[in-house]
From TrEMBL:
InterPro entries: SBP_5 (IPR039424), SBP_5_dom (IPR000914). This is Solute-binding protein family 5 domain-containing protein. Residues 86-440 form the Solute-binding protein family domain. PROSITE patterns: PROKAR_LIPOPROTEIN. Transmembrane segments: none annotated.
Length: 521
């Protein structure tokens, strides 16, 4: 089975993006004298620098705000719809046969930013480039056997084998984007990765403007966009590496908004600000406890399950996250599998930890998390507190950016880790393969369950819900992974900015459709 590899920190909260309405722009699109009341420019802040916004390498989080503003796919998840509805973007309609042959009717009158007309010929060229670049997102088109183009407005995609996740993968924010064949040909050296690092050739509502790596990034409105023109002419992004600075500027009125995941106390502080509006929505974010099978404390499934049964999820999630999350009663994120098939089989036992504590001989359980993630930190810290009440010594350990993933696979990895992740798309395959199998890329402790790959292959091929129901049973029985909460996406905006409720992405909570934001009327 193909390997999926995604940067571990990329999944954590989908990144932090802050928004500030600014003023007039120069001829080049950058901000100039900041005249009060001018809302032609929207200024953003990335909490940390972003990965290269090449549509075929972007696989982290925050850089997708640039990619998905400049590029579009055939289909996508409807912004502002928590029901994960797939809607046409550059395709107006489609049919499928046996999860193998997909026929798309394409939108007419669309141009790429270099002036090239969008036709069916662009699909194969775009898929071929993604394959040639060969980075993480390449797996999404690896199963394509052929792209036929009966006419300029029709494409027939045939797969090598049935794949029930193919359409959701096309709709994914990470999914294949249409790239101008003219640009691909003109920048063929090294698959154009140098050129595409700071130029775009998409069809989206914005084009790439000036980039200053590590400092600032810019989007400019595309004058010939096929859809409604965005309200903001320019979107400027600056890199701000202090979480406290972002919060203070937002609360002080220097920033007009941010999209992020919050702990209970931070959310409460924002709720008290009359000049701000908090928007939340159901998401696929699913903070999960990973249990290290190499830990001396957790070598067998029975011990792991006993420990997990001692977690009072209602108390833990309420104390750590408050109203922005609810305790998870499933194994997969709620959106990706029907509730009837997606049930934990453990019942909370107040005595479970007392039995567990007697085996520890006063040793300390170490719980790891990535320091950029407020949600994981809050859950880890509160879990330590709850363990302490049961007489169990525990330590909450933060790992800095760039060290977390390596630390989880090292010989001295912590006994547990809490990871706030989301799937590539709304599909049980996209969650289970990545997190529950060593080939997936984010099975943090390298744990495995015999036979799981076979079940996942069956589910991918047939869509048989029984296959995924058996995976749920395997996860439950192993005690290796334990879903803690269903987290709501959160955006905090000044009351001067409207449209957040129509602009959020149901898969990645840090991703906003800026073409749907506008000044409050």
């Amino acid at each position: 089975m193909r390997k999926i590899q995604r940067n571990a920190l990329a999944l954590i909260s989908g990144g932090v993006v802050a928004v500030l309405t600014l003023t007039a722009c120069t001829a080049g699109g950058g901000s100039k004298d900041e005249a009060v009341g001018d809302t032609s420019t929207l200024r953003m802040a990335f909490y940390q620098d972003i990965s290269t916004p090449d549509p075929d390498t972007a696989y982290n989080g925050s850089e997708l705000n640039l990619v998905n503003s400049a590029y579009e796919g055939l289909v996508g998840y409807e912004p502002g719809n928590s029901n994960d509805k797939i809607t046409g973007v550059l395709a107006t309609s489609w049919t499928e046969k046996d999860n193998t042959v997909f026929t798309f009717k394409l939108r007419k009158g669309v141009t790429f930013h270099d002036g090239t007309s969008f036709t069916s010929a662009a699909i194969k060229a775009s898929f071929d480039r993604r394959t040639a670049v060969g980075q993480g997102p390449a797996y999404m088109v690896a199963g394509v056997k052929d792209v036929a183009t009966p006419d300029p407005n029709t494409a027939v995609i045939t797969l090598k084998a049935p794949n029930t996740a193919f359409l959701p993968l096309l709709a994914s924010p990470f999914g294949p984007k249409m790239v101008s064949p003219t640009a691909i040909k003109a920048h063929a050296a090294n698959n154009g990765t140098s050129w595409f690092a700071n130029h775009d050739a998409g069809t989206g509502p914005y084009t790439y403007g000036q980039f200053d790596k590590g400092t600032s990034y810019q989007l400019n409105r595309y004058a010939n966009y096929w859809g409604p023109a965005p309200a903001y002419k320019t979107v400027n992004f600056s890199v701000v590496t202090s979480q406290s600075s972002l919060q203070l500027q937002l609360q002080g009125g220097q920033l007009d908004g941010l999209t992020t995941d919050l702990d209970k106390l931070t959310r409460a502080a924002y709720d008290k600000q009359p000049s701000l509006k908090v928007t939340t929505w159901a998401s696929t974010l699913n903070p999960t406890l990973f249990v290290n099978p190499k830990s001396a404390f957790f070598t067998d499934a029975g011990t792991r399950r006993k420990f997990l049964s001692g977690i009072d999820l209602s108390t833990l999630v309420s104390d750590a996250l408050g109203g922005i999350a609810k305790p998870s009663d499933g194994v997969f994120p709620a959106a990706v599998l029907p509730a009837a098939l997606n049930k934990k089989d453990l019942t909370y036992s107040a005595s479970a930890w007392r039995e567990f504590a007697s085996r520890l001989n006063n040793r300390t359980i170490k719980i790891g998390y990535a320091t950029p993630d407020l949600v994981a930190k809050a859950l880890s810290d509160n879990l330590v507190a709850e363990l302490g009440k049961a007489g169990i010594k525990a330590q909450s350990i933060g790992f800095g950016t760039g060290t977390y993933y390596t630390a989880m696979s090292s010989a001295d990895a912590p006994d547990l880790t809490i990871f706030n992740g989301f799937p590539d798309t709304v599909s049980p395959e996209a969650w289970a393969r990545v997190f529950y199998t060593p080939t997936g890329g984010l099975d943090l402790f390298g744990a495995s369950v015999p036979g799981m790959d076979t079940l996942l292959d069956e589910g991918l091929r047939t869509g048989n819900p029984d296959a995924y129901a058996q995976v749920v049973q395997q996860v439950n029985g192993s005690g290796l992974w334990f879903s803690l909460a269903s987290l709501r996406g959160t955006a905090i905006f000044s009351t001067k900015v409207a449209g957040a409720d129509k602009a959020f992405n149901p898969v990645i909570t840090g991703l906003i459709d800026y073409a749907k934001l506008e000044p409050t009327r």
